[in-house]
Request: fold
Amino acid sequence: MSYNIIAGSELSEELAMTLQELMRNTLWEPVEAKLADLYPETQDKLNAYRELYHYMSELETEETDFVLNIQKVWEQDDKEFWWDVYGETPDGQQWAIEFTPWEQWMAMEVSPNILRDFETTNAAIVAHALWEMTYAGMNQEQIRELFQALQEAVDEAKDVLDDEESDD
Reply:
């Protein structure tokens, strides 16, 4: 099953809600249960996720054009479903957002299509967002360090390719 994609400019006014507003209107206990159900590997980190959940609810936000979207994807090779959490720009481009600052995550509008979907509860939306936000680390410093290391590896690979091209 896939969720329809909706661009930020098409958000329905009555359903427009940021991730932070959704978190503030969703109790922790159902989020905790969804995290444990959807992502069993979080079991030993649920206390850290609870702290993060409360921290995010009060975090000062930073404006972004991304709309938060979630899509259930069938993986043919593995014969299983997985959840794709991504940001979508007003022109419909989809972006990986695991390295996005948390202040921007909290300011993202949640796609009204997800909010309307009877299978996707508010707790599930928050659980998916928390999982994706922490995919690269449980704090922003860890995430920045990983992003910087990846960026340095990409830059180094580009330098090697440039050197090889200049040798030809």
The chain has seven helices and four strands. Strands lie at 67-75, 80-88, 94-95, 109-110.
